[in-house]
Amino acid sequence: MQSAFPELTKPYRSEQAIKNGDVVNLHGKISNWERWEQFIKNVDQQNADQVRITSYTTEGDPIFDELVYDGKGIEYTYDDSMDAYGGNNRSRQVTKCEGIEEKQEKNGQIGYQLKGCDKEFGQYFELAKKK
Fold first, then answer.
1. Name one Pfam family in it (predicted).
2. What's the chain look like in SS3?
3. Is 73:97 a contact under the CB 8 Å cutoff?
4. pLDDT for residue 23 is more than 90
5. In this structure, are residues 120 and 94 in contact, taking their beta carbons and an 8 Å threshold?
6. Pairing outcome for strands 23-26 and 74-79
7. Which of 33, 58, 89, 121 has its CA 20 to 30 A from that of 44?
8. Beta-sheet pairing, 62-69 with 49-56
9. Cα–Cα distance between 63 and 88 in angstroms, integer?
10. Which residues contact 59 (CB under 8 A, 6 or more apart)?
């Protein structure tokens, strides 16, 4: 699978991430949510698509979740390499997953999680929008 996300440059501030079309999670406030909804729609219709979710730590460092869907499965990349407080194991990790599914959150909102991933870290991906 080939991805064509905008290049990551340091510092990668939330304003730049939003302008690049990333779904941005800034301490629970999500920007470009409609981009996420379009990705989910494309997966449901088996149309290739990709989306980058950029979340920011309390210190302001970005952590990236990149999902590339090829019409069959999702290649998921977790990248915490720009997290200055992330410890010694910061890196880009990649796994392949069968798909993504909705799940009902305890607070009534809809969340999303990956399913059928070939590496354990893929099961930790979750995204939900607070109402």
1. DUF4362
2. CCCCCCCCCCCCCHHHHHHCCCEEEECCEEECHHHHHHHHHHHHCCCCEEEEEEEECCCCCEEEEEEEECCCCEEEEEECCCCCCCCCCCCEEEEEECEEEEEECCCCCEEEEEECCCCHHHHHCEEECCC
3. yes
4. yes
5. no
6. unpaired
7. 121
8. antiparallel
9. 15
10. 84, 85
Which tokens sit at 108?
A: 């009534």
What span, in angstroms and rounded, lies between the C-alpha atoms of 130 and 1?
Answer: 31
Tokens of 24: 């941005």
The residues that bridge with 67 in the sheet, in sequence order, are 51, 76
Overall size of the chain counted in residues:
131
pLDDT tens digits, 47-73: 999 999 999 999 999 999 999 999 999
* Residue 101 zone, left/alpha/beta (φ > 0; ψ -120 to 50; rest): beta
Structure token pair of residue 65: 């979740």
Side-chain half-sphere CA neighbours of 48 within 13 A: 6
